[in-house]
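tool_call: predict_structure(chain=1)
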Amino acid sequence: MRRSIHEICDNLAKRRKFVNYWAVLFADVILSVASTYIMLSLISGFITNIPNITAISILISSAIVSFFAFYLLKINKNIIRHASIKSVSNIVTAVIIKELLLLFIAITIGSWFSAKYLYVCCFIDLLMTTMVLVGFRVMLILVYDIAIAQVSSRKTRVLVYGTSDKSVALKKRLHTSKHFH
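tool_result:
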């Protein structure tokens, strides 16, 4: 286990990438479906009983709709070192699209929930999915920064240019100095 973590850190330092975009998209869809599952557990435990077949159909629909919304807005492409308010707004937009499509599917099918629970479920799912996906992005950024900090050099880099004797002497002094080498 320890060796594999060091290999991941070495790969991060060499390539300056984190993971494949498709892996991030897959993780986003899994986290989105997990958020929907948490929402269904909360609703089923506290408000109304949800049959298993209904829960399974909601989770499958959530996976398909999440993949469509996340792929459409390409939220898996802006995660490391470039995360900003714009990327968070893309995540929120994708989650809103997911919820609107799920709401449309639920209204079209008409057999998932009664109307009074449907909007509450979508709102809770919106909050849960947004919180989980933004938390996932923050965690990826922190892991990336920690991995780069562990692998990268802590030496100060100095650029010496020129061809005269003074630049060669400066390079020689910096090379033998304990502060810069």
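agent: The CA atoms of residues 25 and 149 lie 26 Å apart. Proceeding to next step.
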